[in-house]
Amino acid sequence: MSQLKRTPLYEVYKDQAKMVNFSGWELPVQFSGIIAEHEAVRTRAGLFDVSHMGEVEISGPDALDLIQRLTTNDASKLVPGKAQYSIMCYPNGGTVDDLLIYRGTDSFLLVLNAANVEKDVEWIEKHASGEVRVRNLSNQMAQLALQGPLAERVLGKLTDADLSSIGFFRFRDDVKLAGTVAMVSRTGYTGEDGFEIYLNPEDAPKVWREILEAGKEEGVLPCGLGARDTLRFEACLPLYGRELSPNITPIEAGLGFAVKPEKGDFIGRDVLAEQKAEGPPRKLVGLEMIDRGIPRTHYPVYAGEEKIGEVTTGTQSPTLKKSVGLALIRAEYAEPGNEVEVEIRGRRLRAAVVKTPFYRRPKK
């Protein structure tokens, strides 16, 4: 693992966690255990190191025009202090990456998936024109995510800022937190309430320790990639390389809410507009196993003797205690209630198409 990249927090937790290679980064897959960490986020709060994510700043008079040309959502709706989920696509509608866009006073910050930073920056720069500046800030920022129903209570112990004033998909870039100034957004990737904290890399270890200390009474746990995956999966939040890829469009992945053909031209618009209007050839669906077995990534899905798609993500859901999966299948088989078969270790086992998400956060 000596050639792998490491976040500013590596030295803090390297002896406390099981480490793995994730997209060229040496990252914790678990600390106390995936199930314990998953349950902590669902019932209390959990703290994640997500400093491997990429951050790119786009500024200049033509910054908005570039973002509108590159992304599927309508970034003109953003005002300073607001964030947006969006997607970059190829001309054929396949996905370059999904991302968050934060609008600052005079610039935009794009948050990218770690595995895609280099190709994303190349894609952005390739399409940049006019008065626009593209800066890759990935090595100059650390990112923590505090997720769970008690996240606001815990983080509130470390700041005088009114965190309740930061609404969903809103942010502030002036939050004084544990002796430093951070950008704090109310976004996340777990299906729970919570915050993502962007800060200087040198401040990250101190803030990490102080959040865990502040959350001791509430039972806050450090969490790894394993729980992050099961949490996002239950909430049916897509993972690039699984539910999204150069061969999967955002419409097929059920992300039509983030595709706005009416805003004007953007890369991939024609294909996506047609799929949105007429329906895509494939659809991402939820599967619940009827027979005993766990659907895993790439397991084939059948209707009779015909292969109709494959599983993108599947597991034994820690919250639901059921074997469930997401699968990309031909659209004509995607109606909830339909019965299909998943091939698991050479055996075809019955599963039902079910509505998603598998988990929805309880309303307060």
UniProtKB/TrEMBL annotation:
The glycine cleavage system catalyzes the degradation of glycine. Belongs to the GcvT family. HAMAP family: GcvT. Pfam families: GCV_T (PF01571), GCV_T_C (PF08669). Keywords: Aminotransferase, Methyltransferase, Transferase. Substrate binds at E196. Residues 14-263 form the GCVT N-terminal domain. Its EC number is 2.1.2.10. One of its GO terms (molecular function) is methyltransferase activity. The gene is gcvT. It comes from the Bacteria. This is Aminomethyltransferase. The lineage of its organism: Bacteria, Bacillati, Bacillota, Bacilli, Bacillales. It catalyses: N(6)-[(R)-S(8)-aminomethyldihydrolipoyl]-L-lysyl-[protein] + (6S)-5,6,7,8-tetrahydrofolate = N(6)-[(R)-dihydrolipoyl]-L-lysyl-[protein] + (6R)-5,10-methylene-5,6,7,8-tetrahydrofolate + NH4(+). GO terms for cellular component: cytosol; glycine cleavage complex.
